[in-house]
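Technical annex, item 7. During the second reporting period the consortium partners agreed on a shared format for inverse folding records so that results from different sites could be compared directly. Each record opens with the tokenized structure and is followed by the designed sequence. A conforming record, contributed by the partner at site C, is shown below for reference.
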């Protein structure tokens, strides 16, 4: 902007407008607000990016929300680190004069997040989080009773569903203790994500059936709806494929194109041979590879 304002080849009115913008950008209050908003949006974006993932758990959502709320509350009293080099600011003001504005902005964001995500702060979901997250605590013998209250709370919440599925709370509590020792005694579970741990346990127990009841409770907590990012991406894909120029696509064709786009793999990992083999052997019309295309040379 400085270079543009000093360039005599530019129009006078444009130079005057740029000088006005430059004067505002050099205001001390403007710089403080930019730094503050940058810090605030950085924390809010972390929560937003979490809910855009394909798979998130209750524990990760609750933890991220708690962290974002705590960091933003700290911003009310902490103006952060501002560093500006090579420029002289004008109209220097005291940091205390922005305290009220910081408090108002942060509180508005916290109220908005709490209103939008209030279901993640109830006591029931905290029990769910403790039940499926802290598998590392199984390694400590003093944690023998860890999670029993959480199992009971989750069972009471979904008692009708779990009872209809053949889940018994007495057997589930007994199996919970055995399951903790089984996980603690298997080193292959040590560094795995909790959801992957329960998936592997379920696969290994499929034939034995030692943890049928407790696994029903654990798997129920794993399917709580926390995100719709995949649905939103599917709608965006639909709009790109079925445009104004391709509005007469057959339903099966549209479904196939969307599956290819949504479940695509990197080009380096794509193996076309199975698709070519199927096309060659299952096509409705006879293939004629010996016929050369029009214009091809011998």
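Designed sequence (site C submission):
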């Amino acid at each position: 902007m400085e270079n543009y304002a000093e360039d005599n080849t530019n129009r006078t009115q444009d130079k005057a407008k740029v000088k006005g913008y430059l004067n505002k950008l050099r205001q001390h209050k403007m710089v403080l607000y930019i730094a503050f908003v940058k810090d605030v949006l950085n924390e809010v974006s972390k929560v937003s990016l979490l809910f855009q993932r394909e798979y998130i758990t209750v524990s990760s959502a609750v933890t991220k929300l708690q962290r974002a709320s705590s960091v933003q509350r700290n911003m009310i009293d902490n103006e952060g680190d501002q560093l500006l080099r090579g420029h002289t600011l004008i109209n220097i003001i005291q940091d205390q004069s922005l305290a009220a504005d910081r408090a108002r902005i942060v509180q508005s964001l916290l109220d908005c997040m709490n209103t939008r995500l209030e279901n993640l702060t109830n006591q029931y979901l905290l029990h769910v989080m403790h039940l499926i997250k802290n598998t590392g605590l199984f390694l400590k013998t003093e944690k023998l009773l860890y999670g029993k209250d959480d199992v009971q709370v989750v069972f009471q919440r979904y008692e009708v569903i779990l009872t209809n599925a053949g889940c018994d709370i007495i057997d589930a509590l007994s199996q919970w203790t055995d399951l903790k020792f089984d996980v603690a005694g298997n080193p292959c579970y040590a560094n795995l994500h909790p959801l992957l741990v329960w998936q592997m346990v379920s696969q290994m127990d499929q034939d034995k059936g030692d943890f049928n009841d407790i696994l029903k409770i654990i798997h129920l907590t794993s399917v709580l709806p926390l995100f719709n990012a995949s649905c939103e991406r599917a709608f965006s894909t639909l709009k790109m494929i079925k445009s104004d120029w391709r509005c007469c696509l057959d339903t099966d064709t549209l479904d196939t194109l969307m599956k290819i786009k949504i479940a695509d793999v990197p080009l380096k990992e794509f193996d076309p041979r199975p698709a070519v083999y199927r096309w060659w052997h299952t096509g409705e019309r006879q293939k004629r590879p010996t016929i050369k295309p029009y214009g091809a040379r011998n």
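The chain has a mean pLDDT of 76. Residues 28-50 form the longest helix (23 residues). All partners now use this format for quarterly exchanges.
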